[in-house]
Specification:
The complex is a heterodimer of chains A (790) and B (155).
Chain A lengths: L13 H5 L15 E7 L5 E7 L1 H5 L3 E6 H6 L31 E2 L5 E7 L2 H8 L3 E6 L6 H4 L15 E8 L1 H9 L3 E12 L8 E7 L4 E6 L4 H13 L6 E4 L15 H13 L3 E4 L2 H7 L3 E12 L5 E13 L26 E10 L13 H18 L4 H8 L12 E2 L5 E2 L4 H12 L1 H13 L3 E10 L7 H6 L8 E7 L5 E5 L8 H13 L6 E5 L16 H28 L6 E4 L2 E4 L5 E3 H9 L13 E6 L8 E10 L6 E11 L6 H20 L31 E4 L17 H18 L13 H9 L4
Parallel strand pairs in A: 1-12, 10-11, 14-15, 20-21, 27-28
Antiparallel strand pairs in A: 1-5, 2-4, 2-6, 3-5, 7-15, 8-13, 9-10, 9-12, 13-14, 16-17, 18-26, 19-20, 19-25, 22-23, 23-24, 26-27
Helix pairs in contact in A: 10-19, 12-13, 15-16, 16-17, 18-19
Chain B lengths: L2 E7 L2 E7 L5 H8 L18 E4 L2 E4 L12 E3 L12 H8 L9 H14 L5 H7 L11 H14 L1
Parallel strand pairs in B: 1-5
Antiparallel strand pairs in B: 1-2, 3-4, 3-5
Helix pairs in contact in B: 2-5
Classes of the chains: A alpha+beta (790), B alpha+beta (155).
The structure holds FE2/S2 (inorganic) cluster (2 copies).
One FE2/S2 (inorganic) cluster sits at the interface of chains B and A.
Chain lengths: 790, 155
């Protein structure tokens, strides 16, 4: 190994971005390209009585207009769901069609009704306003708990009670028993509010059809190009997969919202064939708000049972999860296998049960958003822990420590089998907590709080200790749980004749810095300079079938696939080297970019071996020329990062505004390849999690209008909402992948929401405040401060 | 009806014919092919489209191209000179001030004005100065450090 792994190597991808030479989908211009504007329903629930496109079609510069009827006539059903969860009684989940454009009924604000294609984007927009749609507006329902009640307006006429599925996990009998025997029970009822991801790059797609070759190219701002191709070809359009190339070039952030297969991808591809010209669609921000998959939206009752010593006896959860109007690609997995399975947290809770109902409503679809299910799990567990500590008059750190699963490395000590299906790989929970307490100077903070209170200032300290699951796997297991895809990763490592290396990865970077991290791994292993490695991703024409980037899986799964190819190259290179050095492979050692005969100074370099592989004049018998290997890595298990976060807030007495004074994050993501990049992932995650606690929340009114439909109305964190974050780590390697890595993309989001809420409640607890609904806006905080006649 | 306009962009003269309603950002991206300036919203909220017009940082999605008649424009493509990065570009690279890179051009252009007005800003002043620009990736932490880097480099 060289000396790049573990170093904060500056990113190789930066230069193009800081000089304005990035290549995002909307930057791409193709000769003859047309521009599309989608006509979207302004109503949450409305029958489509009539669509008249004649004026739009007659508008100068309009190339074509298509409606839902055109898709229905062409027999195109809709975008599929990629995960099946069955009812408790074994019935198959109810999975309504998700039309490309709706013909009969609009089911949420933003549902696509028609597409107008024109010579430029201004004309397309003008003409879209000439499409006349007659709607018959119907009653809507937006809250999942209301939607499943008898008599609620139906989203799909043939789906009773708007219920997609119900589901449970854990031991109900044992859990109910634990509550009967409890000394203390803590209960919270809350809404884990809906969030809108808002990657700063709006979604964009270009469809291109070549009449001569009958081939298509789709440029799409996706985290997941191969899966999009598979779903679109096999399940939507019925076109041959090998004749479709999907390219996801530079993508401006995803956070889950660009995982899913969207109707617009189908639209531009299908329309490009109809008009025989390229079609580009780029979302306006209001379309992002209306149609990018939303996140969270759980209505939950959560209870925790303790004995008199403060030991956890049981956890009982009832959740109504909002699916929106249709089932998005991975939607059913989020509240179930990414949420219910995480309810053990990092505690020894002996009995756990979750009962869940997934409901359709007249709102945009909900699917994975940074953390996807795990933030919801951590939120309820950690809110309960802080609340319970207060109720039982215990220190929140001590209550947690008492209930922690003892350390296990997954090698000497076995993994930890939870009550909710998963087996944790390795963990040292007390280790992260101790480090966080030390970093925060917890004792000092409590003294400061005491002093603040004496001075009439409102200060609070909140905790969150969490475990999460990344790199969801193995494929056979997730298949048994309902996944309609495998969750392995692919890599092809190609050593070029001159010893330079091109890596083709099935992972997709949209900010994560794979071009650097993966190059560090390859360069270090081959003992070559970083500049000699190039990482290619996001193009189905060059990259082997990959599963994309989400769920913090790229390094643990994608990096491991690269490691498999590296090992194959080292083995073959060794055989070539042995031939050149006229020795046996066993006599060789590989270090610093060369194979050396042990105990001698006879050696041959990586570059010479590479050249020999492609110019095989003096070559081992029976060895194939070339030095390139593809690998597919299917992990043995998820990885389980964990951490301890502490938030310190101060609340303005007059306005109720919460100021985040300090934020301490100690995470354990296993081994770290590039600390700078990992820290950056944590910072970004924190911003989104803190955003949920204090600022963000989607609001639909009774009629299903999205009231937070622009950046003016939906509040996201800005630079002056945060202090500098205090980020640190412990290292407990993952025992089951070759790099010992876990995943760092979501930890910040998962941990920070409850930490901040806990800090606010801690601050206000002397006023008798027990809970405040998120986002904890100044108004809500002020009202809470004054509710008890304070 | 189209209007002829001309302006200087990154030191080069450009002219073109545009409808009066064409936004400056579309003129820059679609007509001039300078796609480093990005569009992130419809409401002048995100700052991804920030450029310098006659030395001041403006959101080019909220200015018509015809309003830039005769103006001196600098976009992200004009920041490096003779292959040498501007201290802010260097700062964003050195301090890992970008992840997906989509907000980055706007952040850099806004920071130019910030440092012009206040060459030695405090952390709070930097945060305040960047309030008009959203970044969804970095949590702003390293963006603040990038601006601090450039400030000390330029000092
Ligand atoms: S594009 Fe968002 S401010 Fe201009
Ligand atoms: S780096 Fe992605 S939005 Fe700022």
């Amino acid at each position: 190994m060289g000396n790049l792994i573990g170093q904060s190597v500056k990113r190789v991808e930066d230069k193009r971005f800081i000089t304005g030479k990035g290549n995002y989908v909307d930057d791409i211009k193709i000769p003859g390209m047309t521009y599309a504007q989608i006509v979207r329903s302004p109503y949450a629930h409305a029958k489509i009585v009539k669509v008249d496109t004649s004026k739009a079609e007659a508008h100068a510069g309009v190339v074509a207009v298509f409606t839902g009827k055109d898709f229905a006539d062409a027999g195109i059903g809709g975008v599929p769901c990629g995960w099946q969860v069955d009812f408790k009684n074994g019935d198959t989940m109810r999975e309504p069609p998700h039309p490309i454009l709706v013909a009969d009924k609009a089911r949420h604000v933003g549902d696509g009704v028609a597409i107008v294609i024109a010579e430029d984007r201004y004309i397309a927009k003008d003409a879209s306003e000439l499409v006349e749609v007659e709607y018959e507006v119907l009653d809507a329902v937006t809250n999942p708990a209301e939607a499943i009640k008898e008599g609620a307006p139906l989203v799909h006429d043939d789906i009773p009670n708007n219920t997609s599925f119900d589901w449970e996990l854990g031991d109900k009998v044992a859990t109910d028993e634990a509550f009967e025997n409890a000394h203390h029970i803590t209960t919270l009822e809350f809404v884990n509010q809906r969030l809108i991801p808002n990657a700063i790059e709006p979604r964009s797609a270009i469809g291109l059809y070549n009449e001569a070759t009958e081939e298509y190219t789709l440029y799409t701002s996706s985290q997941n190009p191969h899966l999009i191709r598979l779903l679109m070809c096999a399940f939507v359009l019925g076109i041959p997969e090998h004749k479709v190339r999907v390219v996801s070039p530079d993508v401006g952030g995803g956070f889950g919202s660009k995982i899913h297969h969207y109707t617009e991808e189908v639209l531009v591809i299908w329309c490009s064939k109809q008009i025989n010209r390229p079609v580009k669609w780029t979302a306006e921000r209001n379309e992002s708000f209306m149609t990018d998959c939303h996140g969270r939206d759980h209505v939950t009752k959560a209870e925790m049972a303790f004995d008199e010593e403060g030991m956890l006896l049981g956890l009982r959860i009832n959740t109504k999860a909002n699916m929106g109007a249709y089932l998005s690609t991975f939607a059913p997995a989020v509240p179930t296998y990414l949420h219910g399975t995480l309810l053990q947290g990092l505690y020894t809770t002996p009995a756990i049960h979750i009962d869940l109902t997934a409901a359709f409503t007249h709102t945009n679809v909900v699917d994975a958003y940074r953390g996807a299910g795990r933030p919801e799990a951590a939120f309820l567990i950690e809110r309960l822990m802080d609340t319970a500590a207060r109720e039982m008059n215990m220190d929140p750190a001590e209550l947690r420590r008492k209930n922690f699963i003892p350390p296990f490395d997954g090698v000497e000590q076995p993994g930890y089998q939870t009550q909710v299906a998963l087996q944790y790989d390795s963990g040292n929970y007390e280790g992260v907590l101790n480090k966080a307490l030390e970093l925060a100077d917890y004792k000092g903070l409590r003294e400061e709080q005491k002093k603040a209170r004496e001075e009439g200032r409102i200060m609070g300290i909140g905790f969150s200790t969490y475990v999460e699951a990344c790199g969801i796997a193995p494929s056979a297991l997730v298949g048994a749980l309902g996944a309609r895809a495998g969750l392995y990763e692919a890599a092809n490592v190609r050593v070029e004749p001159t010893g330079k290396v091109t890596v083709f990865t099935g992972s997709h970077s949209h900010g994560q810095g794979h071009e650097t991290t993966f190059a560090q791994i390859v360069a270090d292993n081959f003992g070559i300079p970083l500049e000699d490695v190039k990482v290619v991703h996001g193009d189905t024409a060059s990259v082997p079938f990959g599963m994309g980037t989400y769920g913090s899986r790229s390094l643990a799964v994608g990096g491991s696939a690269i490691m498999l190819s590296i090992e194959k190259i080292k083995a073959k290179g060794g055989r070539i080297a042995a031939h050149l050095l006229e020795c046996s492979v066993d006599d060789l050692e590989f270090a610093d970019g060369k194979w050396t005969v042990k105990g001698t100074d006879k050696s041959v370099g990586f570059g010479d071996v590479s050249l020999t592989a492609y110019v095989p004049h003096n070559y081992p018998d029976g060895e194939e020329p070339g030095l390139e290997f593809s690998s597919f890595y299917d992990p043995a298990n998820f990885t389980f990062p964990f951490g301890a976060h502490i938030a310190v807030v101060e609340i303005d007495k007059e306005t109720g505004k919460v100021e985040l004074k300090r934020y301490i994050a100690v995470d354990d993501v296993g081994n770290v390849i590039n600390p700078m990049i990992v820290d950056g992932q944590v910072h970004g995650g924190l911003a989104q999690g803190i955003g949920q606690a204090l600022l963000e929340g989607a609001v639909y009114d009774e009629a299903g209008q999205l009231l937070t439909g622009s950046m003016l109305d939906y509040t996201m964190p800005r630079a002056d909402d945060f202090p500098m974050f205090e980020v640190d780590r412990t290292v407990t390697p993952c025992p089951h992948n070759p790099l010992g890595v876990k995943g760092a993309g979501e930890t910040g989001t998962i941990a920070s929401t409850p930490a901040v809420v806990n800090a606010v409640i801690d601050a206000l607890s002397p006023m008798g405040v027990k809970d405040i609904r998120m986002p904890m806006t100044p108004e809500r905080v002020w009202k809470a401060m004054h509710q008890n006649g304070n | 009806m189209k209007h002829s306009i001309s302006m200087t962009v990154n030191g080069k003269e450009y002219s073109g014919e545009v409808e009066p309603r064409v936004l400056l950002v579309h003129f820059i991206r679609d007509h001039l092919g300078l796609t480093g300036t990005h569009i992130g919203c419809d409401t002048t909220q995100c700052g991804a489209c920030t450029i310098l017009m006659d030395g001041a940082a403006i959101k080019s999605c909220t200015v018509f191209a015809v309003q830039a008649e005769g103006a001196q424009i600098t976009t992200i493509e004009g920041m490096a000179s003779n292959g040498e990065l501007h201290p802010l570009q260097e700062g964003f690279h050195e301090e890992h001030g970008l992840q997906c890179g989509f907000c980055t051009p706007g952040m850099i252009m806004t920071s130019v004005e910030l440092l012009n007005q206040n060459p030695n800003p405090t952390e709070a002043e930097i945060r305040h100065g960047l309030e008009g620009n959203y970044c969804r990736c970095t949590g702003y932490h390293n963006i603040v450090k990038a601006v601090q880097y450039a400030a000390s480099k330029q000092a």
